[in-house]
Amino acid sequence: MTQHLVSIRRPEPSEAACRFLEGSHRLYIDGDWVEGEGRTIAVENPAREQCLAEIRAASVAQLDQAVAAARAAMAGHWGRTSGRDRGEMLQRFATLLDARADLIGEVMTLDNGSPLASSRMVVKFLAAELFRYYAGWATKIAGESFTPTIGARPDTDFLVATIREPIGVVGAIVPWNAPPGMIALKLAPALAAGCAVVLKTAELAPLVGQIFAELWEEVGGPPGSFNLVHGYGEDIGAAMAAHPGIDKIAFTGSTAVGRRIVEAATGNLKKVSLELGGKSPVVIFPDADLATAIPTASMACYLSTGQQCMAGSRLFVHRDIHDEVAEGVAAHARTLKVGDGLAPDTVLGPVISARQKARILDYIAIARDEGAHALLDSAPIDGPGHFLGPVLFTQVTPGMRIEQEEVFGPVLSLIRFDDEEEVIADANGTPYGLSGSVWTRDIQRALRVAKRIDSGQVGVNIHGAMSPETPFGGNRLSGWGREFGREGLDGYLKTKAISINLGAKP
Ligand code: NAD
User: Fold this and answer.
1) Cβ neighbours of residue 198 closer than 8 Å, sequence gap 6 or more
2) 417 alpha carbon to ligand 1 midpoint, in Å?
3) What is the DSSP letter of 483?
4) N or C: which end of the chain has fewer CB within 10 A?
């Protein structure tokens, strides 16, 4: 049985974080902080299995109030706010995120276990940069005008002008794995577009959402433009998906819940965007730069202890370099220190919950039963904390459950291949299509394979690259629509075409 490298350090949270935890944790509705009237959520620190805070969820009546406040904001002051002013608020929001990155990052680490350095990166390089990017778009939302080629009346001149309007009230539902990034991905483009937002945090990591509402209040966001509710998915999340006052649900989470949201949204046929799960392939050809490909392939899966949607959890390796890559990834993974995210030497924090750990251990047992070989095995790690070390399976073949299903944990499957056609078919052989990467020095092969991998984004000699401008989203069971970039903004706008009668043709 493998021994994982474990950090023994368990630093105490900072004074600022303790003050935040000891403060009140409320809902933010129509510009007021109000005590929730729903069920109590006991927020756990997954590295210590200790209760961080108790939060009262919203009741359905409070959700109704938040939706009504959002509708009123759109009909009132917020609806009349200029793009210039919205952009300026978003810019100031980005500056505040940067300034508070240490606290927000630490709260994220306490809430979901991520190593502190990663949490701060999510705040500074994802959340703050998204606000900065969409602040720029707020002043550039414009339609177009044109002369239609065939008018309603042949003897009359027409002009068509299109205007781009906010889609309406947005219900944002986010997961626990990177709250600052997930919230920013919805909030920044929605507010830039002029929508009003009701955000529901994830019950497993709700605390960062509160800081976002505090910052929106600090930049002077009008009441009702951004409302915060906490709640469990099956009651408040489901009520949002079915709510007649919500025009769009922007969802990130599992494919199973995504389906439920689509079904619940049929009442008012609200628009739905879905960022769902994945089982992304990393494909390494024999001519690749293995010195880079091997550690990157390792981190493509093990980053965030495997709890990231674009995890490269299937590693396809050409037969000629199979053993070298397998040994290399195992050696790299053995260096990854598991521990409390507050410890500076931790690379892999805990998984989010006891339930998630049990689920991952089940998948490890399933893989063994299916005949996979654990080149790097899981070993018990002393608690408290839901810790798991990296696991590497070889002798995985396409079609095994470990190769098909999203584990959302530090479990990497290595699959041997012989040729390009075979690996493309197998890379596309799951119902998911989120991410992927191809590793080769042959530019033609790189582009050929990248084009044929059926997923929303593919890296060439890199995995999981993101930037505010680069569209991100999934094909097939990985989702509907794109976030980031201009397409991320388009999802919060609707187009109205106005046809203008210019009178009789001369
Ligand atoms: P989850 O689907 O269990 O929960 C996500 C959110 O949905 C939570 O806020 C939850 O309260 C809510 N929810 C649960 N049931 C609901 C219902 N019936 N109606 C409405 N809302 C409901 O997912 P999770 O465990 O929090 O996150 C992990 C999943 O998220 C993984 O599958 C991962 O791949 C996916 N994910 C995808 C992306 C992406 O960008 N594609 C990013 C991060 C995570």
Assistant:
1) 63, 66, 67, 70, 169, 170, 171, 172, 227, 229, 240, 246
2) 33
3) B
4) C
Ligand 1 pocket test, candidate residues 41, 235, 254, most atoms within 8 A of CB: 254
**Mind listing the domains of the chain with CATH numbers?**
27-276+481-493 (3.40.605.10), 281-467 (3.40.309.10)
Among 204, 211, 227, smallest CA distance to 112 is for 204
Q: Does the pLDDT value for residue 136 go beyond 70? A: yes
| Site of tokens 């078919």 | 425
The label of the residue with tokens 């959340």 reads 127
pLDDT confidence tier of residue 2, bands split at 50, 70 and 90 = low
Residue 160 near residue 176, CB atoms below 8 Å: no
Q: What is the pLDDT at residue 154?
A: 82
Cβ contact 402:372 at 8 Å: yes
The secondary element (H helix, E strand) that includes residue 173 is: strand 169-173
CA separation for the pair 386, 369 (Å, rounded) = 24
Q: Please say if the pLDDT value at position 185 is more than 70.
A: yes
Range scoring the smallest mean pLDDT among 26-40, 115-129, 271-285, 378-392 = 378-392
Tell me the DSSP string of 79-115. HH--HHHHHHHHHHHHHHHHHTHHHHHHHHHHHH---
On whether the pTM is more than 0.90, the answer is: yes
Does the pLDDT of residue 150 top 80, yes or no? Answer: no
Give 446-452 contacts, CB < 8 A, sequence gap 24+: 448/420, 449/283, 449/420, 449/423, 449/424, 452/424, 452/428
Q: How far is residue 411 from each of residues 116, 355, 364, 405, measured CA to CA in Å? A: 22, 16, 8, 11
Q: What is the mean pLDDT of the chain?
A: 97
What pLDDT is attached to residue 506? Answer: 86
Looking at the CA of residue 257, tell me the nearest atom of ligand 1. Answer: 2
The 3 state secondary structure assigned to 292-348 is: HHHHHHHHHHHHHHHCCCCCCCEEEEEHHHHHHHHHHHHHHHHCCCECCCCCCCCCE
